[in-house]
Amino acid sequence: MRIVGLTGGIASGKSTVSNLFKSSGVPVVDADVVARDVVRKGTGGWKRIVRAFGEEILQDNGEIDRALLGQIVFSDPTKRQLLNRLLAPFISSGLFWEVVKLWIKGSKVIVIDIPLLFEAKMDQWANPIVVVWVDSETQLQRLMTRDGISEQQALNRINAQTSLDWKRTKADIVIDNSGSLKETKEQFQKVLMEITRPLTWREFGLSRKGAFWILVSVTVGVLLWRNVYGENSSKPH
Hints:
Largest sheet: 5 strands, parallel
Number of helices: 10
CATH class of the largest domain: Alpha Beta
Radius of gyration: 20 Å
CATH topology of the largest domain: Rossmann fold
Order of helices and strands: EHEHHHHEEHHHEHH
Distance between the termini: 42 Å
Low-confidence stretches: 217-237
Structural class: alpha/beta
Shape: globular
Mean pLDDT: 85
Helix content: 55-70%
Number of strands: 5
CATH superfamily of the largest domain: P-loop containing nucleotide triphosphate hydrolases
Strand order of the largest sheet: 2-3-1-4-5
Strand content: 5-15%
């Protein structure tokens, strides 16, 4: 099994590339979707956030006001780091199990779409790592247009993230999304051919890093299931 790491930056076009993978039949585990699930009302992530940021960040229905929380953490690096620390264990666990489910179904290539791939040290799971890059001016203009915000607001959001140029140096594959959609699709097709070819022995060894952590998750899950249900199921009724 090959686990492909997909990352980028705000308004870089990562979602576009992620959708290209999906439309090509390659399963994608989206960290943003997992992150939304782990902060739903009553979950462990929800409780941690409310404890740290107060009930002021809740909507009338008790769910977290994601827009308000975003404003808070984007304007304060300390609070942003706190939020990442609070949610990291829940998101990591959620990603593990999503990958496990696809693995059990027989998926040979799985893309994990994670904005904070490097920051969360999750790059060790993946081989290769694909970074969707865009030049800084294009990134700024696209973000302003997409979100209808001022130049300063856009700069604040961009500067709150790790530099795309730095991520580019850590990539195995770079997709330059500064041009047209057609150009991006042409690059994507080359990436698709690369990741769907058979693994070499060296790549197989590297891929086992990701598989190892998946196996750990499966083993822990099985042991927990046996501890909770195994003994009870063997008792006479």
